Structure formats: C-alpha cells, structure tokens
Amino acid sequence: MGINRELSQVLYDKASRIMPLGVNSNVRHWGEDMTFYGRRAKGAYLWDVDGNKYVDYRLAFGPVILGHAYDAVDDRVSGVIRSGVSLGITSELEVEVCQKVVEMCPSVEMVRLVNSGTEATMHALRVARAYTGREKMIKFEGMYHGSHDYVLFSTYAPPQAYGNRRDPIAIPASSGIPRGLGDLVVTLPFNDEEALERTLQRVGPETAALMTEPMMGNFGSVEPKPGFLELLRRKCDEYGILLIFDEVKTGFRLANGGAQEVYGVHADLTAYAKAMGNGYPIAAYGGRRDVMDIVGRGVTQGGTYAGNAVAAAAADATLGMLKAEPILSTVAKRGLRLQEGLKSIFKEQDIRVLISRHPAIFTLSFGVDYVRDARDWARSDREYYGKLAEAVMERGVLIDEDPREPWCLSYSHADADIDLTLDLVNDAVQALKVQGYPRGSVG
Ligand code: PLP
C-alpha cells in the first residue's frame, strides 16, 4: 500500500528552493519523501494537494477545538474584516475577549492579548523577572514553551543527553542561542520532587520563574504525579518564585478553565494560545493583578498586531461558544470513545500501550507501563509508533509522526468519524502485525 503524493512532491521540490526545508515551521518537515502539502480542511477532515482525505487528529498542533473552518467563527471573522483589521487603538472587541478570558480562567485577574504562544511565554517571563528582580528560570526537560531563546533548552535533545538527573545539563535546542543564556536556565526532570527540592536550595533565591506545562501536552501528555503541582505551588511561594503555567496547549481544551480548573492548582501567570481562537493566530498572557499591573509601568510589551480584529473576532466567537454550550464535555465524551476503542484494538493484538488520561488531548506510548518524565518516555517503542503513523495515514487518519505529539480532538469529530478512525487503525495494526511489528519487547 502506498499513498499518492505526486503533487506534494512537485511542491516540495519547488518550495525547498525558496523556503528552508520547503516549509515555514521546522516541524512541518517530515523528510524528503514524507513532507506533504495541504489544500483545505473542514470539520474533522483535512485534504492534501493530491486529494487524499484524512480524519485529522493533529489539528494544526492543537488549536482547532471546534473544527476546521467552523462557520460560527468564520462568520464572525468575515463580519469584521471590512471594518479595518488593525486600528492601532484598542477595540471594544478586544476588551470583550479579555473579559471572557478573565471570567473563564481561574487565576487570571488581568490579561494582555498577543499573537502566538511564543510571545505569551516570552512576555510572561519578562514580567516575572521584572516583578521579582531576579534572572534565573527553572523549566522541565522535554517541555517546549515556544521558539524564543530563553526557553529553548532541553526540549528536543535526546533524553540520553540530559545528563544525570541529580545534575541535569541545560542543552540549547539550536545553534544561534547565546551561550550566556544557558546560565539563566535550570532544567529538571518533571515529577521529581527530590531534584526540585535540591535545586531550589541551590538556586531558589535567584530564581524569578518556574515555567511548566501543567501536563506535558508537547511530550507524551505526561501527567503530573498526584501532589506535584501542589508542591510546585508551595515551593514557589516559599522561595518567592512566580509559577508560570504554559497552557498554550491545555488552555480551553482540558476544560474552559484549562488545566488549572482540572488540577485545582493556580499559577501566578499563565500563557494561553491555540484553542483560544480555533486556529486563528491569537494568544494571551495574564495572571495576578499585582503582577500584571507592572506591565507598562517600567515593563515593556508591545505588538502591532496584538488584539487585531481578525484574531479578536475569532477568539470572541470561540470563547463565547465554549462558555455557552457544553462543548468541551462533548469533546471529552467522544475522545473517551476513541481512547477505549484504541485500547481494545491493541489489547486484542497483545500490544502493550499506555494511553494518557485526557480524552481531548492524549498520547500513545508503546512498550511502557508508566511515564513520569521525558527520560522515562525515551524507553518507549518509537519505531512502532513511526510505522503506525505511516500506516494509519495511508488509510486516511492523520496523526503526527512524532510520538511525543498528542492526538487532539475537536467538537466536529462526531461518533461516526471516531468509528471510522477505529476501523482504519484496526486495519493498520493488523497489517503491521503481519509485517512483524511491533518487534522486540513491545508485544
Ligand atoms: N507552549 C506550548 C506548550 C506549545 O505547545 C507551543 C507550540 O506548540 C508554544 C508554547 C508556542 O506557541 P506558538 O507556536 O504559537 O508560538
């Protein structure tokens, strides 16, 4: 079986002469043979330029919470674009969006709109440094908080390179990151209370911020151990460190109030993006009034497009729908159906799989019974995941080829789409079994 990617190949050849790797974001490059190009998307489906149709579980890395080209959102956007998209002064719509964020997000008393998750975490970090008068930050291994230099440490590196867990090495994820920044970033394994306590004794008083995803939406959907987020909260208070939750992926997806509503632990500052605008480019950072109140009072933050009408209209429509209707509980119900179906498929074939908990965003890790952190995850069977991703894609189910990336659901994924997905995955798993996959200890 193969997939027709003729037109994609032609586009790839053209694009790679004028765009590095032929794409506008490194993670869209899947290699010379596998990189493909999209034409359109609607509801739960995406079509590539060759006309192949997929049930989409990548959902553009998470933002599409209602479904692609969702009419209620697009109609609101069409309604504003002829009245000026960037006014350069604040619009009523922006105030309305900020009001909704404050009402929905448990720890947000004041908020600013920006354009991307990267901007949101970058600004939150600057505010934390300004508020505390300290420079260091702590982050956890494997977590990606955007593409600014401050947080690109120990993200993509193979976990074997993280060093000993008693003394982790902060590994820059890219050439071009000033070496000196490494002195300001302390990396730790997630869920390791002992490493946290020891590190805080050493650097706590110099640390401005501890930034974390409440659950690792970018890395195996690894959950915090019971009590771990509470420990972070207590320790940050003890050392005068600001706790920043990166809810770029979990916000407006796990619950209307994001992971903070689910886990009941509140951050000082939070970054939001993705599901906030159903795929339109909008983000926000916000938090405690006394902390956010320093923005503009000696603390810089600007943005030509921040709060532009397209983004604000999309967010207002998306958040309005989430508030008014049981959208996320419906997504969760359908996600559970998918998770249960996947579990039975792998059980029937005697394939050991760990499916993470949250039904609207979850990850499959093969050959492991538990994953506490990025180091544990490295023991999972990535070869099998790669084969599976290819095989389901050939049959019309789109997941990321990177096993750390989650399967995401939208409100447009109906029960029938899930049943279709399960049939296609089942077929792929059986075909792989005939070819001898999984190999080794997984089965
Ligand atoms: N934080 C998390 C958890 C993310 O998943 C991402 C993007 O994938 C970012 C930050 C950066 O967001 P953006 O790509 O909008 O800059």
Strand count, sense and barrel status of the largest sheet are: 7 strands, mixed
Shape: globular
Task: Identify every distinct bound molecule in the structure, by name, code or SMILES.
Answer: pyridoxal-5'-phosphate
Please report the distance between the alpha carbons of the first and last residues.
Answer: 24 Å
Parts with pLDDT < 50 across at least 5 consecutive residues: none
Question: What level of helicity do the residues show?
Answer: 25-40%
Rg calc: 22 Å
What is the N-to-C succession of helices and strands? HEEEHHEHEEHEHEHEEHHHEEEHHEEH
Our count of helices gives 13
Q: How would you classify the helix and strand content by structural class?
A: alpha/beta
The largest sheet has its strands arranged as 4-10-9-8-7-5-6
Tell how many strands the DSSP assignment holds.
15
Quick check: average pLDDT?
96
The protein's oligomeric status is: single chain
Tell me the fraction of residues in β-strands, as a range.
Answer: 5-15%
Question: Any key phrases for this structure?
Answer:
443 residues; alpha/beta; binds pyridoxal-5'-phosphate; 4-stranded mixed beta sheet
Which helices and strands, and how do they pair?
Elements: H1 6-18, E1 38-42, E2 45-48, E3 53-56, H2 71-81, H3 92-104, E4 110-114, H4 117-132, E5 136-140, E6 185-188, H5 193-203, E7 207-212, H6 228-239, E8 242-246, H7 258-263, E9 269-272, E10 283-287, H8 289-292, H9 309-324, H10 327-348, E11 353-355, E12 361-362, E13 364-366, H11 374-377, H12 382-395, E14 397-398, E15 407-408, H13 415-434
Parallel strand pairs: 3-14, 5-6, 5-7, 7-8, 8-9
Antiparallel strand pairs: 1-2, 2-3, 4-10, 9-10, 11-13, 12-15
Helix pairs in contact: 2-9, 3-9, 10-13, 12-13
The structure holds pyridoxal-5'-phosphate.
